[in-house]
From TrEMBL:
Highest taxon in the source lineage: Bacteria
Phylogenetic classification of the source organism: Bacteria, Pseudomonadati, Pseudomonadota, Betaproteobacteria, Burkholderiales
Keywords: Oxidoreductase
Domain NADP-dependent oxidoreductase: 17-346
Keyword field contains Oxidoreductase: yes
UniProt cross-references to Pfam families, sorted A to Z: Aldo_ket_red
PANTHER family in the cross-refs: NAD(P)-LINKED OXIDOREDUCTASE SUPERFAMILY PROTEIN, NADH-SPECIFIC METHYLGLYOXAL REDUCTASE-RELATED
UniProt GO molecular function: oxidoreductase activity
Species, as recorded: Limnohabitans curvus
The protein's name: Aldo/keto reductase
Amino acid sequence: MTFPLVQLGTSDLHVTPICLGTMTFGEQVNEADSHAILDHSLARGVNFIDTAEMYSVPPKAETCGHTETIIGNWFAKNPGARQKLVVATKVAGPSRGMPWIRDHMGLTVKDFVTSCEGSLRRLQTDVIDLYQIHWPERHVPAFGGVYYDPQKETSETSIHAQLEALAQLVKAGKVRHVGLSNETPYGVHEFVRLAEQHGLPRVATTQNPYCLINRTYENGLDETCHRLNVSLLAYSPLGFGLLTGKYDASGITGPDAPKGARISGYESVRKQRWGRPESLVAARRYNALAQENGMTPTQMALAFCYTKWQVASTIIGVTSLAQLDADLDAWGTTLSPEVLAAIDAIRWEMRDPAQ
């Protein structure tokens, strides 16, 4: 299968419309199996991988950085692979109850430099193609938060100062391009405005959740990114597994729930947006719609992301070669106008329960 290449924002990065997410590496997937997934993904034509300094997930002090290390070891075993891939990773934002990542508020120049050098060392590479801020330095309602509350503002590092720190990394040749993650319309606009005003690196991307049970990206951020030419990297296209159908009969915590799955196996994940009862209720509706129209739930959920104009590249996370093949084979699936209308009707009724 040959995938078309997509330009990320105004950068010179051209990537496949499917990106291999790696946060399962080092927790659910051991190193040998992770390397097999990387081998197969590259062999099937995917040229884009995404990771983060805080991975594996769910985050723990003892596994922080493990995913990057696994990828770095794979690069060491496969010397030609690095040149074939666009590698994206992320600097963690201020501490969100994870002092082993960041034990203070703000996101200082030192934080950017230290984190970037750590990622380069673990990845065993000289440069990061796309370096993203994992979550905003300022207080925003992310990871299941719904309402912005100015009383909770904790910002200590301005967006301008963050861009200046990223500029240092670009100038030093450690980073090629920069991006955001879990951002808001305001944040994307300010990063672009200040970069253009002061001659600093312009963000190419934002990595935000986007799937059938969380389409909040379409509530204004899509217009912002379209007009400013910032590309969406859509994460959790399968709603943390809810949109695969594997929890439809058992629920996420019942005795028959799939063993080893993230949302059923890790309490910290269940407490977030994907673990809400309403999220599973909505997912069951979409999964039934897929089956009524001759598709697996996975096929329909991925086709929704693969074919939306808003999405530049969809990040898939897998734990096996079979999952990887299923996700890649969904490329080319089309959704009829009738199915798309039915999807919108469900959303009108159920809204975005996993926002």
